[in-house]
Amino acid sequence: MILDANDIPAGTELQADLCIAGAGAAGITLALALEASGLDVILLESGGDAPEPAVQQLYTGTVADARLHPPADSYRVRRFGGSTTLWGGRCMPLDAIDFEARDYMPHSGWPIGLDALMPWYEQANALCEAGEFAYTAEQAFPRADHPSRPMIGNFESDVFSTNTLERFSCPTDFGARYRNRLAKGRVRVVQHANLCHLPQTTNATRLVGPAQVKTLDGKSFTVAARAYVLATGGLEVPRLLLNSPGVSGNGLGNAHDVVGRYYMSHIAGTIGTLDLSGASSVWHGYDVSDEGIYCRRRLALRPQAQHDLHAGNFIARLHHPRIPDAGHGNGILSALYLARPIVPYEYAKRLYGDAPGGAGNWLAHARNVITDAPNTVRFLTHWLTHRTLATRKFPSVIVRPANLRFSLDFHAEQAPGEDSRVMIGDERDALGMRRIHIDWRYTRQDVETVTRSLAALAQEIHRTGVGSFSYDPAEVEAEMTRYGAYGGHHIGTARMGNDPHTSVVDANGRLHEADNVFIAGAAVFPTSGQANPTLSIVALALRLADHLQRQANVTALPVPVTSTSSTAI
């Protein structure tokens, strides 16, 4: 059922076995997975079904370097469905190497391995509507009558593979997609309910609660649950923990000053010219699986090569020339440039970067559109039918250069660093909570990951005779920080581990310092890997749901203490 906190009388105390905060990918997955568990579950969501500026404004904060990190309220959405109302739908699992402790990758190593997530990836793929769990060309396209074209013909390398896939969701808005199912189910979804404080008054019981909940109109009530799950995203999780003092007084779960540290995103950029005129064939577009799923191949640095190079995980895609430079002469790219005013910030940042302006540049792009009118019209027609009006949207702009000269779009693992962190400042929001201050930093290891990977790729392209890759090594650091922290990938701020001095939660997502508080989402990732995090967020949420239902058995925890002055529901 779906309720509105504005309809709940002030001073009410809701009671449940489990209270989940945050109705994004992780929170909705947990609620769906626990529908038939027999547990009494409440799912709190700050927003409603539609965007609300006053609610979104609760996300605002400050950043230490605006050049390196976008505003705190961008790339995330405070409404039912969370940031799945915004994402691009790219799905891929983490790799086995991502879970390993690597001597060249500081603070690496998960307390679980890939095998712990594998039982849940297939179901995660289904919830994300990304088709079957098949992430190589051989798995996804096994039939002779539906083969996957090689990405680069005659490119055989022990350093880079070209057969791993990215699969694309619709992209699925979890709020819109699963609202009716939750509305008809046992889980109580409470919208416009802001979890503000999780009190822990004594360390003797190691229990937290009841949760303090507020609405924007000033109403307060509590939720007394046997256990709580924070599924509010990698930036909001540390804010919630740090706004609840805990027994240490430094923040709930923060006795050792780890909450908010090790903040990662991904290192991404576009660089160089990859000339593939020597290849027997080149395919950089999308294949469509039998289920209608868009799939795309990429260059991936093999695990052994990562070890040999002391590089983090790294992938690259064949990319069109930079859009802002009218010198590319392409009407399609110039049409996209001229459409800048209507492109949302989150996509414009990546498409255009610091684009040159002025009437001269605008006219040059207009000339490209007119000169290349037939191609431009074909592209716009395809975009309208396969993207704008389609339920399953064509994922991205694909432009094939006639001379087979591409730029290289890379996406790499960021090393966890304890000085890259999310803190709380002195400014308070409309609910009285202290706002976040973000100090995202990259490290020399991040620069080396990209530098060594690009050099290895240039060598392999030359060795195999398929072409050449030219770029300026001196510009690598500038290119990889051109867009700063990559989009909405907020990772590692409440990392999992076995040592409370260097981690916030254990292998099951439970706070080291409290027996009844769990965290779901990318905040618990110890390392980022190369993969976009949503699919693994959903898989981890399914694993946590199984743990809560079968192993943790939250009903074995003490009945929550209720306030004698409140009304229990």
TrEMBL record:
Annotated Pfam families: DAO, GMC_oxred_C
GO terms for MF: oxidoreductase activity, acting on CH-OH group of donors
Residue ranges of domain Glucose-methanol-choline oxidoreductase C-terminal in the record: 416-541
InterPro entries recorded: FAD-dep_OxRdtase (IPR006076), FAD/NAD-bd_sf (IPR036188), GMC_OxRtase_C (IPR007867), P2Ox-like (IPR051473)
The keyword Flavoprotein belongs to this UniProt entry's keyword annotation: yes
Cofactor: FAD
Assigned keywords, A-Z: FAD, Flavoprotein, Oxidoreductase
Domain FAD dependent oxidoreductase: 17-235
Membership in a protein family: Belongs to the GMC oxidoreductase family.
Name listed for the protein in its UniProt record: FAD-dependent oxidoreductase
Classification lineage: Bacteria, Pseudomonadati, Pseudomonadota, Betaproteobacteria, Burkholderiales
